[in-house]
Amino acid sequence: IFTDNDLLTHLERMQELFADETLDSTWGQVADLSDVESFRDVSYKGLCRQASLNPWPKGSLRLVIAPMDIGFGLSRMYQLLCEERGEDVRIVRSEAEALALIIQKKDRSGKAT
Q1: Which residues touch 86 (CB under 8 Å, ≥6 apart)?
Q2: Could you tell me the sign of the dihedral formed by the alpha carbons of 25, 64, 8, 47, in that order?
Q3: Least packed by Cβ within 10 Å: which of 8, 27, 36, 92?
Q4: What is the pLDDT along the chain (113 residues), one digit of tens a residue?
């Protein structure tokens, strides 16, 4: 079961990793929702908070793997919130699609993300 609290916990952990310089602008992110069985405790307010407090630099590629329709829809709302802020968030249905996007970005930039 995926909840707003999971979003908040993840956000706090990412902020810590950027603060201690474990992560920097060269990193990308893949969030895999394949094993989530229920999204009943995810709210629009939680998605807005996640998007507004996002620590990832604008140039970082962030991918969400969302094979279920409900997860895809929620991820799409998140994507739209992030796009308003100029961030690059992509939603895909499979790990293979995510890998293809990562390879495509790497080929364009000449470096791994």
Answers
A1: 58
A2: positive
A3: 8
A4: 999 999 999 999 999 999 999 999 888 899 999 999 999 899 999 999 999 999 998 888 999 999 999 999 999 999 999 999 999 999 999 999 999 999 998 787 765 54
